[in-house]
Write a structure and sequence with these properties.
- The chain is mainly alpha-helical.
- The chain has one domain.
- The protein is 83% helix and 0% strand.
- It contains four helices and no strands.
- 0% of the residues are buried.
């Protein structure tokens, strides 16, 4: 306007500021939801692949172990059948306990699902809190 009245840094006033803030918040939420969806897809695909590989490995290793067990017992049937069964059973037990131990280690090492999304939401909350406290934008940086 040319009447010489100062209206602040923006010519739209308070309404324009609210519209701009609303647009920024919607964009921020949309970005975070896209990140969450991407992480969910990655976790789902990783879980699906792991499940398929576990089923295949378990099936074929079980078949191989059954065949090997039968072969060992048949070889020692006439001389040491009980010892052969005990050794085969002990080996199965050792492998099973080792697999459980490794599975627990794998679960401890796995990253927390949606960790990046939660970190970004935490940063967004801190940024919005700073905005509410009227901290100058130049000190905050972009979200």
């Amino acid at each position: 306007m040319s009447d010489g009245t100062y209206r602040g840094p923006s010519s739209g006033g308070l309404r324009h500021a609210f519209a701009h803030a609303g647009t920024a918040i919607v964009g921020l939420v949309r970005t975070r939801l896209e990140l969450a969806a991407l992480e969910f897809t990655e976790e789902r695909d990783r879980a699906r692949t792991t499940l398929i590989l576990v089923v295949i490995a378990a099936l074929f290793c079980t078949l191989a172990l059954l065949g090997l067990s039968a072969l060992v017992v048949l070889i020692y049937w006439d001389t040491h059948r009980v010892a052969a069964m005990a050794v085969v059973t002990a080996i199965y037990l050792i492998v099973g306990v080792g697999a459980i131990w490794r599975l627990k280690g794998h679960a401890r090492e796995a990253p927390e699902p949606f960790a990046q999304t939660l970190a970004e939401l935490t940063r967004d909350g801190e940024w919005l809190s700073a905005m509410v406290r009227d901290t100058p934008r130049s000190e905050q940086g972009p979200p």
